[in-house]
């Protein structure tokens, strides 16, 4: 059973709430999309199972600004370090504050991916007084909260530590305050000069009410309050929060001790690494969710997250090999589904486990087969200005293209162009030498010259000048001479691209006139014989 369907089958209760959340500390990276898609898929699986469910998404905008991302004006935002994100000015005119600016970008990605949760902001919960009962309950039971920290994570809290972060009445910072007493509905706080290593407190102290937005609960405690206030029954967490003795274990303990409730269902999911690096919103590491949404069609971005089980790490890099393989894997799965329809007298097959990742990758609850066109071929075609891209797509397609096929083809053309413009390394780009001989073509080994000589004879016997036939000819010629493939193919790339490597050589030659290819090979052989 597909993992989301199993969660749905096991879920109990008449009102199921799936929840996820994010601190908008900076540009949201593609790694954060995994949690969003996982929770959305659980929500969709529950709906399909006929269960009453809603999907909520929390914006933790009362958290402190703890670093200024490198892509923002350091001088402008440094004075706001330590203040709640919702109290920090917006980096642009699109939003009224810092938190809504970066969350707004992320919510655009939600819409693009067909993810439509009920979104709530923690500022509203605090300022409206909805959190007041929980603030009082946790302050009254601070000793139980301290016990949970000590028993679960071995973190010792002093007897005068209280689970609350006040917003300093003088400097407006929330990260620098320490609460040491709670009496008659008021807390005593101090804005500690040395509370953090990234900003200083102002030294102010005094009694104040903790209610109605004057501060916040520490996030592990706040997590528990959100579960109760929102009615959360299912919430997964990333590996970093899910380790033994980690954040989720502490929150679970607090939930049991203070609220005397069973915590929501939980399972960990792994990170997404970009080039082997874990995502960080504030540090600006990796590719942003917005950028990935601009590159990948929504179904492909969802598929990237869903083809790998949640407990398996994804190491993603938008390089040539990874991006073309992603599209090829998706297209092959769609093609298999289309074949299953054909074998089922035109009816959609039962959505067995084989099709679930494909099904949940769709924006709508339907898989629509299409005639695919290889992305790597489009990347090459777009770099050959002497070719008309639409004519090439039409002539190279296996059959007549319908309206839906053309829509997919145009989408893929846009992806290929975007990838070339923003992600391709110089070595991935083609510069075909059509009117001159590349310098590297004059520097071939004797084995490579022999390979071209035999290849020239073999090409004269090729009847169909297409990529597959030419690729087979290139391979069979190398085998005929017992020459290693990289050495053999290097002679072709040097002859036409002035490079040692390139795209699939068969399709590359198929883009060119057969007579021109044979003439070029003859010329290169002659140059190396001179």
List the helices and strands and how they pair.
Layout: H1 3-10, E1 16-22, H2 30-48, E2 53-59, H3 74-77, H4 98-112, E3 118-121, H5 122-127, H6 132-140, H7 142-153, E4 165-166, E5 177-183, E6 186-191, E7 205-208, E8 215-216, H8 219-230, E9 237-238, H9 239-242, H10 247-259, E10 268-269, E11 272-274, E12 277-278, H11 289-295, H12 298-306, E13 314-316, H13 320-343, H14 353-360, H15 375-381, H16 389-396, H17 403-422, H18 446-460, H19 467-480, H20 485-496, H21 505-510, H22 514-529
Parallel strand pairs: 1-2, 2-3, 9-10, 11-13
Antiparallel strand pairs: 4-8, 5-6, 6-7, 11-12
Q: What are the defining features of this structure?
A:
530 residues, mainly alpha, three-stranded antiparallel β-sheet, 10% strand
What is the strand content? 5-15%
Portion in helices: 40-55%
Q: Given the C-alpha coordinates, what overall shape results? A: elongated
The residue ranges in which pLDDT falls below 50 over 5 or more consecutive positions are 279-286
Give the tally of β-strands.
13
Number of helices: 22
Structural class: mainly alpha
Distance between the termini: 66 Å
Strand order of the largest sheet: 1-2-3
Radius of gyration, in Å, reads: 30 Å
Q: Describe the biggest sheet?
A: 3 strands, parallel
Mean pLDDT: 93
